[in-house]
Structure formats: C-alpha cells, structure tokens
Amino acid sequence: SVYFENKYGEDMNNRTQRVLAKADPFTAENLRDINADIYHLGTLLADDFDLDTIKALAAKGTVAVDVQGYLRKVTGEDVVHVDYDKKREAMPYISILKANEKEMEVLTGTTDPRRAAKILSGWGCREVLLTLGDKGSIIYTEGVFHEIPALPPADLVDATGCGDTYMAGYLYKRSRGASYQESGTFAAAMCTLKLQDKGPFSGTEEDVEKLIRNSLKNSQ
Predict the structure, then answer these.
(1) Going from the N-terminus, what domains does the chain have, and what CATH number goes with each?
(2) How far apart are CA 166 and CA 103, in angstroms?
C-alpha cells in the first residue's frame, strides 16, 4: 500500500522514514468475500484500514493489528508519529495488538511497558504484545504478563520487517494452539534469524525450533 525509504543509524532499533508513493486504502467492501479465522492488519499508514473495516472483520473472526501504521502521519514525504485518534473506539474490536516501545508511548503516554500493556488491555484488547528491541518482548493477557527474552543474533544485518516477522510467528503458533509463552518465544526466534539476513524471513519452522533448542542449552 505504500513505498517507504527507511534509513538506519548505528542503533538498529530506530529509523527514519520517507513515503515515496502511496496506494488507495482498503475498504470493508474490498474484503467482503475474504474469510479467515484470523485477520491480520499489518498497517503501514493510518488510512490503510479504517474503523468500519476493523469492525466488519471483527464480526467474522479474530482481528490482529500491528499498530505502527495508525501512528504514522505523512507530511510531504516525511513520516512523523502521531496518536491514533480512533484508538478507544477500535480497541474492543482488536483481539491481538502489537506495538513497539515508541508506539506504546505514543498510544498510552507512558514509557513503562507493563503500565502501557494494562492501559491497552483496559481499552478492550485481549492480547497485548509489546516488542522492546534487544530487551525482548512482553505479552499481557487475562491479567498475566509473559516475558519473552530476545535471542541475540550472530550478526546484525537487516532490521527492516522484524515487527512483521514477530507478528507472523506469534499468530502462526497461536493459530495452532500454542501457549502465549511458546508463541512469543517462537516469534522472538524468528526475529533473530531474520536479523541475520537481508530481506524478509526465509527460514523454516525447523530452523526456528533449532535456534530455540540451542538457546535453551546455552542458558543451562
């Protein structure tokens, strides 16, 4: 839906963005004939999926949202972070929400991940995923925190798409009945493998499970 230019400095957890081209947003009518158990909205800009579309999809299945796009405002070609003005209305229809540290602060006004998770849950979201870069991630659901450690990559090559990779891994495992902890650990391991190569994640499920097993051995 959009053509970005991403620029990273020495800290791969932070980047600047420019929008070079943009497509029309999706609508509920566009998605009317699509049926699934989970509808993941990997938003890139705020108008990709409006509130009516979220509501329409929630009536058919589980809605998962990567909130990043809802917090992006395009000024000229530059991307700046702004609050999501429909967040209180949208949250009860979002079953699974992912945000990083910067995004959670914009949404909730706090830099404390645990406090932010409770705020987002209080607005109606059932599963809150907060990714914290090299500090790992936390999952908050049903009043319980699940802490997921980051698995350090052997070599840091490309961070673009790590949030998408995390969400893909988490939803894959949850859709197959895995626990919150198992799903988060699998997602974190996928991110580690993705960081080590340029481009999107290209490994296999066995690659991910092997990394998890090796990490457990090394921690003992």
Answers:
(1) 2-219 (3.40.1190.20)
(2) 15
